Give the backbone structure.
Amino acid sequence: MVMLGNMDMAGGIDKYSVDHGKMMLNNAQALLTEVMSGDAMMGMHKKGKTPEGHADMTSTHRLGEAAMKIVHLLAKM
């Protein structure tokens, strides 16, 4: 949405598209941060489920890191 809005092809709608796209990126980052460091994740770590000892936690951490990289790359575009 940000990239489309920056093409300046839709007149007055472009600003709203850019703003909404930026809001979506901010929300995505906040959601990923909550998933990866929120109460649920911390509770699982306290119970001994760590990336080093559990394949599902290893996958979850890898996916979270990859998703955050994507959000950061999109924000730079």
Observations:
- The chain has four helices and no strands.
- The chain has a mean pLDDT of 92.
- The first helix runs from residue 2 to 6.
